[in-house]
Specification:
It comes from Rhodovulum kholense. It is found in: Cell inner membrane. One of its GO terms (cellular component) is plasma membrane. This is Inner membrane-spanning protein YciB. Its main location: membrane. By secondary structure, this protein is mainly α. It folds into two domains: 91 residues; 110 residues, no CATH class. It is built from eight helices and two strands. Strands 1-2 form a two-stranded antiparallel sheet. α2 runs antiparallel to α3 and α4 runs antiparallel to α6. The longest helix has 28 residues. The model has no long low-confidence stretch (mean pLDDT 91).
């Protein structure tokens, strides 16, 4: 098994968020245009989606080459992007790509829920090195994150079904990122109470 390698945090963030930002830029530039390819008309949203899929796969591959590690969450996300993004392009129907965040967050919530039912925190396996916590802290954080993912899945369904594509793209690009950041910032008291220093609490 290859040993994990550390890379610059800025580079890692750029590789993880780059495809999302590129999708947003492509959508803004192409949203009012229609393209005819092989006799079929495609809206700008579909073409932006078509570009997002390989870009995400490329940046994920680069992350693996540089770090020799890709999390299960990143792999699951890439698979769902290929499936739902591919359906969007193949069927020329933007609804499939809009459903993708719902599928991703529902899957994550289900996985965390199964772990909780087994008395385990699967989240700990993913973040333990970055956020060392006592077991009780991991269980609380996992329960909160599971409910948070359920909320995001429901919110995504409401937005894409009732609002404009522009609103959904803004929500996907900025809203989800800000919401996840805000969620972890809001866990400050939990991190302080259950956090471990140097992986081990004194006493």
């Amino acid at each position: 098994m290859a040993e994990k390698r550390k890379i610059n945090a800025g580079l890692k963030l750029a590789l993880e968020l780059g495809p999302i930002v590129a999708f947003f830029v492509a959508y803004v530039r192409l949203r009012d245009r229609t393209f005819t390819i092989a006799g079929t008309e495609y809206e700008g949203f579909v073409l932006a989606t078509a570009g997002f899929i390989p870009l995400l796969l490329i940046t994920t591959a680069i992350l693996w080459v540089l770090t020799r590690h890709v999390s299960k969450m990143q792999i699951a996300t890439a698979v769902l992007v290929v499936v739902f993004g591919g359906l969007t392009v193949w069927l020329n129907d933007e609804r499939f790509f809009k459903m993708k965040p719902t599928a991703i967050y529902t899957l994550f919530a289900a996985v965390l829920g199964v772990g909780l039912l087994r008395g385990k925190s699967y989240l700990q396996y993913v973040l333990d090195e970055a956020v060392p916590l006592e077991r009780a802290g991991w269980m609380i954080l996992t329960r909160r994150l599971m409910l948070f993912f359920v909320g995001l899945a429901v919110l995504n369904e409401v937005i894409w079904r009732t609002m404009s594509t522009d609103m959904w793209v803004n929500f996907k690009t900025f809203g989800l990122t800000v919401a996840i950041f805000a969620f972890f910032m809001a866990q400050g008291r939990l991190f302080k109470r259950y956090g471990l220093e140097d992986g081990k609490r004194d006493g």
